[in-house]
Design a protein that fits this description.
With 302 residues, the protein is α/β, with parallel strands linked by helices. The protein is built from 13 helices and nine strands.
Length: 302
């Protein structure tokens, strides 16, 4: 079976919806653990190699082969549980309030948003990005979510589901960027990911360092924040041992000015990435990034 093609097909999302509706959390977690372990054993899969490479960097290249394999399995199992929870609670919105709580840093950002003060929220793919967005929607926290451009069929269907539950989502494009800029000028807020690497024609000249290595990560949020005189908050949804989710984050990062624009963008992006790295180090097994953030590391661990 071509797992990559299957996961990019809308059929996978339909199956997940059915399972989320029919299974208990206990049964869903058991299934997620089994599937996650099975996927991680296929060392030639691109997503498995990507997770191994990313975790290798996070742990400063100090993991043994056995430790790296175990951690990789844990990442896929964690991601599976989080995805199950999202589809499980889509039809149970009242129950989501029972398992999601907001930390003081995230509450600070939310207060700004509700007071119509422009705010930029940047999110690493820790634990459940989906549960965070759903919790925002259910708590009437209005943000425009800028998602990855050119989504595949599965991602398009997920975007439909996100809109159905009240999440305002826009795949990144020139038009979406302009709308985000306008929204911030008018006192609105945006949310976007920070750790999915750019590829192909998305690449730009900026290569900020993340965990001490240069990357092709997006930096457009720096300019958006500066133009709107808006703070940047790094926020993450962390899975807890009791099955709940905790929305935590950083204090506000205000864009610092530099004489050179390129230096300014990279400098501020690295400030943001440094805080994201701190969050990831706390829960590395929950970092569900299935694309190689540092492609050159693939050869180092092969």
């Amino acid at each position: 079976m071509n797992v990559k093609n299957f996961l990019s097909d809308a059929v996978a999302v339909r199956i997940a919806l059915v399972l989320g509706k029919l299974l208990t959390r206990r049964a869903g977690y058991k299934l997620a653990d089994s599937v996650g372990k099975w996927i991680s054993k296929h060392q030639h899969y691109e997503m498995v190699r990507a997770v191994k490479a990313n975790q290798w960097v996070v742990h400063d290249g100090k993991l043994s082969a056995g430790e790296l394999n175990t951690l990789t399995a844990n990442v896929f199992q964690s991601a599976g549980r989080c995805l199950f929870d999202y589809f499980h609670y889509i039809g149970r919105p009242e129950s989501l309030f029972e398992i999601v709580s907001f930390g003081p840093e995230s509450q600070q950002a939310i207060e700004r948003i509700r007071n119509h003060q422009p705010t930029v929220i940047i999110v690493p793919h820790l634990s459940s990005f989906e549960v965070m967005g759903y919790a925002f929607a259910l708590n009437n926290i209005p943000v425009q979510v800028l998602s990855f451009p050119n989504p595949n069929d599965a991602y398009k269907m997920q975007n439909k589901l996100r809109r159905r539950v009240g999440i305002e989502i826009s795949p990144m494009s020139l038009s979406a960027f302009r709308n985000a800029r306008k929204r911030l000028r008018e006192g609105g807020s945006i949310l976007t990911g920070l750790d999915r690497p750019l590829v192909g024609d998305q690449l730009d000249k900026y290569r900020p360092k993340f965990f001490g290595r240069e990357t092709n990560l997006p930096v457009a949020y720096v300019r958006l924040a500066k133009e709107a005189n808006a703070p940047i908050y790094i926020m993450a949804c962390i899975s807890q041992p009791d099955g709940s989710y905790f929305l935590t984050g950083s204090e506000a990062v205000w864009v610092a000015s530099k004489k050179d624009l390129s230096e300014e963008i990279v400098f501020n992006a690295e400030r943001v990435l440094s805080k994201a790295a701190d969050l990831i180090r706390q829960r590395p097994e929950q970092w569900a990034m299935f694309y190689p953030v540092w492609p050159e590391v693939l050869d180092e661990i092969s």
